[in-house]
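STRUCTURE REQUEST FORM
Protein name: Ribosomal RNA large subunit methyltransferase H
Source organism: Flagellimonas spongiicola
Requested output: structure tokens
Priority: standard
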Amino acid sequence: MQITVLAIGKTDNKELALLIQEYEQRLKHYVKFNFELIPDIKNSKNLSENQQKEREGELILNQLQVSDSVVLLDNKGKQFSSVDFSNYLQKKMNSGTKRLVMIIGGPYGFSEAVYRRCTEKLSLSKMTFSHQMVRLFLVEQVYRGFTILRNEPYHHQ
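Status: completed
Returned output:
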């Protein structure tokens, strides 16, 4: 299985970007993993929230393949403990999922077209986090999930 994380816009904070890269490197020992950035919409200040979501949605949909299992990071999504999330990843691998695409949207969320395309929605917390921080949290949780599956000492209960 390949896991792809799609995110709108670049990671502005250099320290945060370095931490994300560290977990990306760690993940390569467990799974084919890549983090893809979709460039910010130019002149977004001149667009309404809806227009911005629609434009971002078009860019997101262009990155997807027909067979992708698409998971949106959404505040109304399902929440997992880290152990439950590791079991979720195992089920995806067991089911023959070729590419699991986890999408972090822009500041206003997703267009209706992206919601229609998704397979599932996932929430990292009931709290609201910046889109920049969510990138690190997600990549770390995917890494944690694989260490749990391998019974490695990273995760403690």
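Reviewer notes: The beta strands are 2-8, 32-38, 69-78, 99-104, 120-122. Residues 19 and 136 are 7 Å apart (CA to CA).
Form closed.
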